[in-house]
Amino acid sequence: MNERTALITGASMGMGRRLAERLAGRGTFVVLCANTPELLEEEREKIERAGGRAIAIPVDIRDADWITEVVQHADEAVGGLDLVVANAGIGTPCDGRQMTWDKIAPIIQTNVVGTIATITAALPGMLRRGHGHVLAMSSLAGRRGLPTVSHYCASKVAISRFLEGLRIDLAGTGIVVTDVQPGFVDSAGTGRKADYPMPVVLGLEPAVDYIVKAIDTHAPVMAFPPSLAMAFGAMGWVPRAVFERAAGWAIRRK
């Protein structure tokens, strides 16, 4: 059954925007959240012109109190959120030799603080109603530490472990917890701007197909594309010294 209502962060561009359109197209009332008000309003108008229903709420998810208030307000305004998608995330490379907290803080605050605040804000209402679905974007990059993006990898593995533990806690409550682990996606947020190797880049539409499938099947984990997910899985068995030598060679070679 399609979700009656959904809230999506990072809904003004990339996967979040396209997911909002896909859900709205099948009858879901979508709450659009992002820190880009003009793009957000454009997306709301686009959805409504296509016959869907949406509201736009600007918010900076790095402010945990702000996103908590927005999620709770939206939950009341739409009569209960059936689905909350913590999609917003950023990932700027930073070599460890030039790393400072000021450079990496926005990634940690967005990907970790913002994501966890979004999910936890939705839980009280879902628990009261006895049903709901929370979904967050981690990444295949959370499977191992990678050169120039160690801070990003850390932010994504934090989300995967958060969701894993949360799924155990919420067993039997009627709340579904999904960890979406994309590889490289050619969207407004990644694609050709990256300054590191990006094997098996997936197009935006196929990526959103996987997310919709995760929603529809209530998958606990959705890692894609399959070939890259298997490769990252295999890397988990590679001895540390071998992996670090190979990863260092690959980044220097580029």
Largest pleated sheet: 7 strands, parallel
CATH superfamily: NAD(P)-binding Rossmann-like Domain
Per the CATH scheme, the topology name is Rossmann fold
Strand order of the largest sheet: 3-2-1-4-5-6-9
Order of helices and strands: EHEHEHEHEHEEEHEHH
Estimated share of beta-strand residues: 15-25%
Layout of helices and strands:
Blueprint: E1 5-9, H1 14-25, E2 29-34, H2 37-49, E3 54-58, H3 64-77, E4 83-86, H4 101-129, E5 132-137, H5 150-169, E6 175-182, E7 185-186, E8 202-203, H6 204-217, E9 221-224, H7 226-235, H8 240-253
Parallel strand pairs: 1-2, 1-4, 2-3, 4-5, 5-6, 6-9, 7-8
Helix pairs in contact: 1-6, 3-4, 4-5
Structure report:
- The protein has 254 residues and is of the alpha/beta class.
- It has a single domain (5-253), classed as 3-Layer(aba) Sandwich (Rossmann fold).
- Helices cover 50% and strands 17% of the residues.
- It is built from 8 helices and 9 strands.
- The protein has helices at 14-25, 37-49, 64-77, 101-129, 150-169, 204-217, 226-235, 240-253; strands at residues 5-9, 29-34, 54-58, 83-86, 132-137, 175-182, 185-186, 202-203, 221-224.
- The protein has a 7-stranded parallel sheet with strand order 3-2-1-4-5-6-9, with helices on both faces. A two-stranded parallel ribbon has the order 7-8.
- Strand 2 (29-34), helix 2 (37-49) and strand 3 (54-58) form a beta-alpha-beta unit.
- The N and C termini lie far apart (46 Å).
